[in-house]
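Deliverable D2.4 — example input (structure tokens):
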């Protein structure tokens, strides 16, 4: 995510304008992949990101406590609902996504 300079919290909480949130992300798609990446690829990336976050504090015998005890349900739901919008960056401008 460092190369993408994407802050998911900014997006979910509408804390920055479209350019600040998506420009580096979109430029990376264009520069590195010549826009051959589709919405499914972006969606897969964020599912991977979500599972990385879930495993950030592993507790093998107790399951995934990160989402169960440390994320309020409305916050987790906001992140999950945002994926359908974030994936649109593959085919739309920053402003169209927001």
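Example output (designed residues):
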């Amino acid at each position: 995510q460092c190369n993408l300079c994407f802050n998911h919290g900014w997006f979910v909480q509408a804390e920055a304008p479209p350019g600040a949130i998506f420009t580096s992300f979109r430029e990376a798609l264009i520069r590195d992949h010549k826009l051959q990446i589709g919405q499914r690829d972006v969606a897969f990336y964020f599912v991977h990101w979500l599972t990385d976050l879930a495993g950030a504090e592993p507790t093998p015998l107790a399951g995934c406590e990160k989402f169960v005890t440390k994320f309020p349900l409305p916050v987790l739901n906001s992140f999950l609902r945002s994926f359908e919008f974030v994936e649109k960056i593959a085919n739309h401008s920053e402003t169209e996504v927001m």
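Residues 18-33 form the longest helix (16 residues).
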